Amino acid sequence: MRGLWDAVRLVPRLRRSSLLELPCQRLPVALLQHDTLYQRRSFTTGEDAGISRRQYISLYNYTPLDKKKLPKLRRDMREQWGDLGVVGRIYIAEEGINGQLVVPETAVNAFGHSFPRLLRDAKLFYGQLIEDKPRNTEEIKPAEPFHKLDIRIRDQILHDGFEGGPLDLQESGYSLPPELWHQKLQERNEMDDSSTLVLDVRNFYEHEIGRFDGATRIMVDTFRDTFDALDEILDQHEKEHDGQKPKEVMM
C-alpha cells in the first residue's frame, strides 16, 4: 500500500518504554506457594498432572522489542511458561507479541506476573474455562486446543497483508472514549463534513451486524484485504475533493 499519511493509523498509540531491555522476572517463591494446587505440566506433551481446569487466554501487545534479543526472550518464555504448564502458540516480533494460550487455572496469577514489562500493558482476553474431566458420564471431555508450547519469532505478530515495511508504532493515532467518539461522529455528520473521512474497518460479516452512520465501509472478507481496499477508497476521496487528502480520519 502506498504511504499512509499522519492522519491514518492502524495500530494503537504506544508509550515509549524501556522494553528494549526485557529481562525476565523469576517467579517469586511465595507466588508459586500461593497456588497450592499447582502441579507441573509438561509443555512438550500437554499431559495432565492433576490439573482440573485450565483457562484459555488470547493476548497481544504492540510494543517495540529488540530484534537481537528475541531468541533469548523466546528461551526465557519457554522456560518459565513451560514450568507453569502453559501450552499454546505465541508469535514474537520487533513490533510485539501475539498469542493464544491455555493456562492451568491455578497458575493464571503467576502467568500474569511472569514478564511484567511485556504483559503489563498487553490486551488479555479470557475465554473458556476448560474442564479436564467431564462433570458427569453424559459429558464428553473437551478437545485439547494445544498440545505443546510453541513460541515462534516472526517478522509480524499479525499477517495483515501490509507490504510497505515496518510501521513506526510510535507515530500512531490516539484512542477516543466511546462518548467522545460518538460526539465527534455526530458533529461531523451534522456539518456534512466530507473532508473528515470515517472508515468502518470491520469485515463484511461484521458490517451486516451493525455500522456507524456516515462511515465508508471497507467491505472486505478478511483483515489482510484491508490495505488494497483502502487504496481504492483514498483514491476515490481525492478524486472527489480536487486531489485533497482527508484532513482527519476516524476509524
From TrEMBL:
Domain Rhodanese: 192-239
InterPro entries hit by this protein: Rhodanese-like_dom, Rhodanese-like_dom_sf, TRHO_N
UniProt protein name: Rhodanese domain-containing protein
